Amino acid sequence: MDLVLKLRELRRHRGLSQGDVARKSGIGVKTLSSFETGERIRSMKLVQLEHLLRVYGVTEAEFFGRAIEHLLEPWEHEQEQALDSLVSDLRSLPEQTQAVIMEKIRLAIEVARDLASPRPALRRDERIPSVPPSSVLGS
């Protein structure tokens, strides 16, 4: 998520209008609008960003970290959260059990890669001949 989108979506998430933010931050509505459209984002001063973040109730670390992205776009991070949960569950198991499960996961990944990789088509003379079911079953 880029800076422009993050600023706009954070304001919306907090239920604030540009006018509300302008009054609380001391930044003009037009200036705020130009930041949110990206028109003047390169000219934003650090002190202006600090004022906005104070109004939005987030720290610089939170804003530039992933926490805000998780808050604003939770659907983008569901798979990541599921994976984190899976890793946490795995770590709660005894080490020997962890090792066995990790080896099985590695094997499953190898199989998935093999299945996903493109294979050259077999020439007619390389194809495995089909065997009638009756000869396989021994009838």
What this model shows, in words?
The structure is a single chain. The chain has helices at residues 3-13, 18-25, 29-37, 46-56, 60-64, 67-72, 78-91, 95-116, 133-137. By secondary structure, the protein is mainly alpha-helical. The longest helix is centred in the C-terminal third of the chain and has 22 residues, at 95-116. It is elongated, with a radius of gyration of 28 Å. It folds into two domains: 3-72, 434 Repressor (Amino-terminal Domain) (Orthogonal Bundle), CATH 1.10.260; 79-116. It is built from nine helices and no strands. The mean pLDDT is 84.
Task: List the topology elements.
Layout: H1 3-13, H2 18-25, H3 29-37, H4 46-56, H5 60-64, H6 67-72, H7 78-91, H8 95-116, H9 133-137
Primary descriptors:
139 residues, elongated, 0% strand, 434 Repressor (Amino-terminal Domain), 65% helix, mainly alpha, 2 domains
Number of distinct helices: 9
Give the second-level CATH assignment, the architecture of the largest domain: Orthogonal Bundle
Helical amount: 55-70%
Could you tell me the radius of gyration in angstroms?
A: 28 Å
For the record, the count of structural domains works out to: 2
Strand content: under 5%
In the CATH hierarchy, what is the superfamily of the largest domain? lambda repressor-like DNA-binding domains
Order of helices and strands: HHHHHHHHH
Taking pLDDT < 50 over at least 5 consecutive residues as the criterion, the unreliable ranges are none
Termini distance? 64 Å
Reported for the largest beta sheet, the result is: none
Q: What structural category do the secondary elements indicate?
A: mainly alpha
